[in-house]
Amino acid sequence: MKLKLFNTLTRKKETFKPLKDSEVSLYTCGPTVYNYAHVGNLRTYVFEDILRRTLEYNKYNVNHVMNITDVGHLVSDADTGEDKMEKSAKEEKRSVMEVSEYYTKAFQNDLAELNIKTPVTWCKATDHIQEQIDLVKKLEENGYAYTIDDGVYFDTAKFKDYGYMARLDIKGQRAGARVEIVEGKKNPTDFALWKFSPKDGTKRQMEWDSPWGVGFPGWAIECSAMSTKYLGQPFDIHTGGIDHIPVHHTNEIAQSEAANNTKMANYWLHGEFLIMKDEKMAKSKGNFITLQTLKEKGINPLAYRYLLLTTHYRSKLIFNWKNLDAAISALDSLYEQFKKLDNAGGESNEDFEKQFVASINDDLNTPKALALVWKLLKSSLPSATKRATLLKFDQVLGLQFASQENIKLEVPKLVKTLATKRERARRAEEFEEADRLRKEIEENGFTVTDTANGPRITKKK
Ligand code: AMP
Ligand code: ZN
User: Distance between CA atoms of 124 and 30, rounded to whole angstroms?
Assistant: First the structure.
C-alpha cells in the first residue's frame, strides 16, 4: 500500500514520491517562543509527529528541520504592531534572550512529554540573520523588493501565481478599497522582508545592521532562508497549521521561489485547528490551556495524544473535558490490557499489520488505526502475537505501551485511605473537606483525578 498524502497545493490526495529514494526532507514551522504553547499548537506538532513516524514506518530516513521563531513575528500578521518577543520581554521584565530560552525549553519539554520525536535540526531565527539578509539581497537583485519608510517589502504583483496555494482572490483584494495600514505599500498583499527599527526613539532589544538600515527580519523570511540552508530547494514536505496557508506559507513560497527560481516544496500538509466551544483556541481569548494545565489535573499527556489521534488531522477537533475524560479511560484500559499480554516473544500478525499500514498510509488515518488496536485486542490471536503487533503499531502511534510494563504504581495505604475518604466527602458534597484531602494526598506525592470510571490515583509530576 503506497503512502498517500493530501497536498494543499493541489487539494488532492497524492501518492507520495520523495526527491531521493530513501530520504525525505521535512520542514515543520516551529513556535514563536514568547509564551507557552497551548494545547491547540500542540495538536499541530502531534500531527507532524505522526507524519514523521509514518514516513519512518515506510522505511524513509527523515531529515526533519524545525525553526524557533525568536524575532520578527508581529502582533498582527499584517506586519504591524509590536514584535511578540519584545512585548513579552517587556511584560515579564526579562531580556528577549531569557524569554526565548525559557519558552524554548518549555516547548521542548512539552514535545518530550507528548512523545514527539526531536527534529534532526533545530534552528533559531536570530542565529540566521546573515542568511536572511542574503535572501533579501537576492530578491532585490531579482527585482522583487522595494524599500519604503517602514522597511523593505516584497512586491507581490511581480510574482506570478502569488497566493496560488491559498487560492487567494488577489484581484478582489487589489480592487477592494481596503485602507492600507502600512503607508507606501504597493499592493495590499505585499509583506515585509526587513523592517526598520522604530524612528520614534523606542529602542528595540533586537536589531541588526543591514544594507538597508538598522532593523529586523520579516516573519516569513526566516523559514525561507533556513529551509534552503538545511534542506535545499526544492525539498519534499512542508507543514504547519491551516492558519499558515493564507499568509505565512503563501509568503514563504513567494520569497523562496522568486529568489531561487525553483519550486519551494513538493508537498504541503496542514493540520486543522483545535477549537473550544466554536472558537479556535487563541492566546488572546482567555481559553488558553497548556500541557501544564492538564498535568496539574493529574492527566497523563499521552492521554491528550490519544485524544488527538481519535480525530483525523484535517478535521476540526473540539476540545472539552468530557472528550478528554473518555480518552483517559480508553488509554488506561489499553494499558491495562497490554500489561496482561504474554511477553514471551511472539511474532507480529501480518494481516493486522497490512490493515494498519493501509490506514496510516491513507493520509494518516489515525482514527482507523486506533480502531484497529481495539480490534486486535478483541481478536482471538495468541496473546504474544497481540503484544508484538501492538508494539509495531506503537512505532507510529507513540503511546508508549512498552514503558507501561515497567510501571507498577505502588500506592501507599495511607494515600488509598485518604482517597476513599475524599471520594466519600465529595459525594456528600462536602467540598471543602474533599479539597483538604486532595491536598493531603498531594503532600504524600500523589494526585487524584475524577474520571468517568471513578477517582484515579497517579504519581504527582
Ligand atoms: P505559533 O507559535 O503561533 O507560530 O503557532 C505554532 C503552530 O501552532 C503553528 O503551526 C500554528 O499553525 C499552530 N496552531 C495555532 N493555533 C492552533 C490551534 N488552535 N489548533 C491547532 N494548531 C494551531
Ligand atoms: Zn514558517
Answer: 9
Axis crossing angle, helix 366-378 with helix 321-339, rounded to the nearest 10: 40
Strands 235-241 and 23-28: parallel
Q: Per residue in 169-180, pLDDT tens?
A: 776 665 544 445
**pLDDT of the residue at 174:** 57
Of 237-246, 356-365, 424-433, where does mean pLDDT reach its minimum? 424-433
Residue to mutate, 39, 44, 245, ligand 1, most ligand atoms under 8 Å from C-beta: 44
Cell of 440: 493531603
Q: Of 14-23, 329-338, 414-423, where does mean pLDDT reach its minimum?
A: 414-423
Q: Give the contacts of 3 (CB within 8 A, at least 6 positions apart).
A: 15, 16, 54, 55, 58, 361
- CA 243 / ligand 1 centre spacing (Å): 7
Residues 6+ apart with CB under 8 A from 455: 419, 422, 423, 448, 449
**Residues of the chain with pLDDT > 70: what percent?**
93
- How far apart (Å, rounded) are the C-alpha atoms in residues 384 and 350? 14
> At 193, which helix (H) or strand (E)?
strand 191-196
Instruction: Express each pLDDT in 273-308 by its tens digit.
Output: 999 875 666 665 566 899 999 999 999 999 999 999
- Within 8 A by CB and 6+ apart from 2, the residues are 15, 16, 361
Phi-psi map region of 27: left, alpha, beta (phi>0 left; psi -120 to 50 alpha): beta
Q: Does 35 contact ligand 1 (Cβ within 6 A)?
A: no
| Contacts of residue 386, Cβ cutoff 8 Å, sequence gap at least 6 | 341, 349, 376, 377, 379
Q: In this structure, which residue's CA is closest to atom 8 in ligand 1?
A: 41
φ, ψ at 236 (rounded to 5°): -80, -65
pLDDT at res. 438: 92
- So what's the pLDDT on residue 37? 95
190-220 pLDDT, tens digit each: 999 999 988 887 778 889 999 999 999 998 8
b/e 155-169 (16+ beta carbons within 10 angstroms → b): bbebbeebbebbebe
Place of cell 507501561: 404
User: pTM of the prediction?
Assistant: 0.87
Atom of ligand 1 nearest to the CA of 73: 4
Grid cell digits, residue 23: 530520504
DSSP states along 121-146: EEEEGGGGHHHHHHHHHHHHHTT-EE
